[in-house]
Amino acid sequence: MEKFSPTEIEKAMARRVPAGELTAEKVAEQEIIVSGWVYRYRDQGGVLFVDLRERSGILQVVFDRAVSESLLQMADALRSEDVILVSGRLRNRAKEAVNPKLATGEVELLASRLAVISKSKPSPIPLEEFDEETAEENRLKFRFLDLRRTPMQTALRSRHKFMTWIRNWFDRNGFWEVETPILNKSTPEGARDFLVPSRLNPGEFYALPQSPQIFKQILMIGQTERYYQIARCFRDEDLRKDRQPEFTQIDVEMSFISQEMIMQHMADMITSSLREVFDLNVSAEVPRISYHDALERYGNDKPDIRFGMELIELGEWAATTEFQVFKKAVENGGRVKGLCVPGGAALSRKDIDELTKWVAQDFKAKGLAWVKVAGNTLESVVTKFLPEDSQKKLIELSQAKDGDIIFFAADSASVVFPTMAALRLHLGAKFKLIPEDQYKALWVVDFPLFEYDSESKSVISLHHPFTAPVAESIEVVTRLGKKSSRDLNAEEIKELLAVKSNAYDFVLNGNEIGGGSIRIHDQNLQSCVFRLLNISDEEANERFGFLLTALQYGAPPHGGIAFGVDRVLMIALQRNSIRDVMAFPKTQKGLCLMSEAPSSVDEKQLRELYLRSVVPKKEGAEKA
After folding, report:
1. The listed CATH number (1.25.40.10, 3.30.1360.30, 3.40.50.2020, 3.40.1000.10) that belongs to domain 307-430
2. How far apart are the first and last CA of the chain?
């Protein structure tokens, strides 16, 4: 009998084996049952070959007229993505038919019975293993199909293995996994909160957590000592390839700990996981660089150290030139930086014009001066402003060689650093200077505690307001923190901006994948920081009163860090976007194309929440 009856199908499911794990060692006479999706099929006249695909892999199933004519006819009606159940005998393939690309490539299943569990319509998107041509919008709309593709199956499997390994590491090292609330009070930490209206408390709202920050500090005060959580977090911010409105982070907090101890523990956790889960060659010894040096040498605080091409300081050199753009930048308190690109003289004038347009549009750079190195001389329209001694000094400072090009940026630091950082990465990739098979981690330390925000014309936290200053600067913060930063004079502001924090970022291949700090455990110091951030005592009590109260009841020294799971996977699997390592991501406009979220809701639901929408109804929508 070639067909399975409904009751036989149910019993057969219990005997099903993973198709992708069948190898030559499993060849035997007994019946084997497999099930999955029809991936490909090939009719060779009297013999039909079907590639059966499920999450463990792909197995070739053979339907042979010599076994059963009626079974072959049943199989002939199969189409791609039909779900089937097959039983048969596993046998070795003929030598010339072995497929070395498949784990099951040495064997095949000679079918004796077949059940068609579910028929499938033709797939609206191709499901080939490495198809990258399909528009992402279509892939996200039909995500239930896209998840079947090998890259997505690999991502989900790798994610599971990574999270399992991380949980085991924490268990071995004495951490407790504790869940913190999803519905919480709105305590903005930089990005906008997602708000949830409360039906039982009209006019009041919960906020979805941007991070479990305050609750994990409360856990330290509550004697938990070592906490972790695989936490879902939410931020209502503009999206990029490494940002989503909801994301997952490995959240950590520890008591009776120093910055040095946390960095040692976390470096071991992350580098070990990258080696053991993803088989990446990452050194357990993670170098460190100060925030100041990262900006000066690379232009940003998350440098990619897989290649050199560091920025060149040209402030003093600018004075030896006759180029007023350089001189005025220095006179106005700005910066002049250079970037020597090996082999960059091959860039055409059109290439350089396109680069100039790019940095002007994206980074507000007023221009992009350049010189090409030809032997011991420089070629450019700006060389007439560079005396011979200046040209020689430039070659010496940049260590430029024949065939190189040197780019310049002269402006305020807020323009120069991001311009040169982006140019370095862009040209590093263009000239293939970045080794794609290398993984280099880095700790960035010694961040300022505060920075000046030119838009709001006020002092803000560089990380968040719960970050502790370094011990030698506590006196400065408590002295100046008797009043708000708006009431400080210029000298006091300068003194405040010089304060360093106990913060640290973990960078992998030029991507920040983790960040943390030692927290403030003294209530008075925390209040001083709030005041300096122009948060009045009344506002601080309204927003953070439960934390300020808890700090008065014996808070231990504590600190922590959070790692972005999606970013780690994106880098480890060499994907272009975190959307490629998440099961159900949103688009750059925050839309789920599959479920069509967000969506409008019934007027009755709004009334129950005491809400009313003021957004005009779309044309053609029914009136409420």
Report:
1. 3.30.1360.30
2. 61
The H-or-E segment that residue 246 falls in is strand 246-255
DSSP state of 344: G
The pTM assigned to this predicted structure is 0.92
Sort 161 into a burial class: Cβ within 10 Å, 0-12 / 13-18 / 19+: middle
- Do residues 14 and 65 touch, judged by C-beta distance below 8 A? no
Closest by alpha carbon to 569, among 612, 502, 511, 496? Answer: 511
CB atoms within 10 A of CB 213: 22
CATH number, domain 6-118: 2.40.50.140
pLDDT at 402 over 70: yes
Distance, in Å, from the CA atom of 33 to the CA atom of 16, rounded to the nearest integer, reads 5
Give the amino acid at 561.
I
Domain spans of the chain?
Answer: 6-118, 153-287+458-581, 307-430
* Kind and range of the H or E run holding 109: strand 107-118
Would you put residue 299 in left (φ > 0), alpha (ψ -120 to 50) or beta? left
Asked if residue 88 has pLDDT above 90, the reply is: yes
Mean pLDDT of the chain: 93
Residue 159, Cβ density class (10 Å: 0-12 exposed, 13-18 middle, ≥19 buried): buried
The C-alpha atoms of residue 318 and residue 327 are separated, in whole angstroms, by 6
Looking at residue 8, its amino acid is E
Mean per-residue pLDDT, 15-26 = 92
DSSP state letter for 136: H
So what's the pLDDT on residue 614? Answer: 87
Q: How far apart are CA 618 and CA 112, in angstroms?
A: 57
Query: Each residue of 173-210: pLDDT tens digit?
Result: 999 999 999 999 887 556 789 999 999 999 999 999 99
pLDDT of residue 7: 85
Query: In terms of C-beta density within 10 A (0-12 exposed, 13-18 middle, 19 or more buried), how is residue 179 classed?
Result: exposed
C-alpha–C-alpha distance, residues 200 and 222, integer Å = 29
3-state secondary structure 349-380: HHHHHHHHHHHHHHHCCCCCEEEEEECCEEEC
With 0-12 CB in 10 A as exposed, 13-18 as middle and 19+ as buried, what is 389? exposed
Q: What is the DSSP letter of 448?
A: B
pLDDT digits (tens, 9 = 90+) for 203-245: 999 999 999 999 999 999 999 999 999 999 999 988 777 789 9
* Residue whose structure tokens are 């860039």: 347
Q: Kindly give the residue spans of alpha helices, DSSP state H, lying in 279-363.
A: 291-298, 315-318, 324-331, 349-363
Q: Could you give the CA distance from residue 80 to residue 50 in angstroms, rounded to a whole number? A: 9
